Known about the structure:
Layout: E1 14-23, E2 31-33, E3 37-42, E4 46-52, H1 70-77, E5 80-88, E6 102-112, E7 120-126, E8 131-135, E9 142-147, E10 155-159, E11 165-170, E12 173-178, H2 198-205, E13 208-215, E14 218-224
Antiparallel strand pairs: 1-2, 1-3, 1-9, 3-4, 4-5, 5-6, 6-7, 7-8, 8-9, 10-11, 11-12, 12-13, 13-14
Amino acid sequence: xxxxxxxxxxxxxxxxxxxxxxxxxxxxxxxxxxxxxxxxxxxxxxxxxxxxxxxxxxxxxxxxxxxxxxxxxxxxxxxxxxxxxxxxxxxxxxxxxxxxxxxxxxxxxxxxxxxxxxxxxxxxxxxxxxxxxxxxxxxxxxxxxxxxxxxxxxxxxxxxxxxxxxxxxxxxxxxxxxxxxxxxxxxxxxxxxxxxxxxxxxxxxxxxxxxxxxxxxxxxxxxxxxxxxxxxxxxxxxxx
Length: 240
């Protein structure tokens, strides 16, 4: 691992579950979301984030992207799921003392299911010992993050030869990432979903994020950007 990568404070690392997303950042909120399933894994350097809306289409009988119709492909390609390096912007913020300090945080998205041209930047502040508040720098939104485990846990990282994150493990939680095939037409990622061909949508949705938990029988997929994978055991998967 490159020693020049920014190091994230220990109290900031772990597994986080989002309990609130609201716009704008201050009440009264114009809209609020507490139903999207959102998990964020934060390691010493790397992060991985998966967000699955509650209004899922019916994927009964679907076993792969080739089985999906146009509507299903657009829904899958529009997910928010990303991974990359996390950075605390200023030395003054690196303590992130619970209840005392605010931090300006940047999530550099090296792999992004549905990318945009905007940077992912948030102002962080502890609400209590296990809850972190994230605010947009200009007050456009607020998010509340609940820390699932507050104890230091083993961290394991696997990257492929291209430097893509393939596996981020924090204790008994992990995110497995299957990259897209390399293509010369990556600009299609920034096209409106409605303008993309079915083949382009399949390619866009082929970047797969699996959120896993470990029990006595090993690793099991709990959530996935390809929903038919939920429930599979890691032994049935390959990380090429």
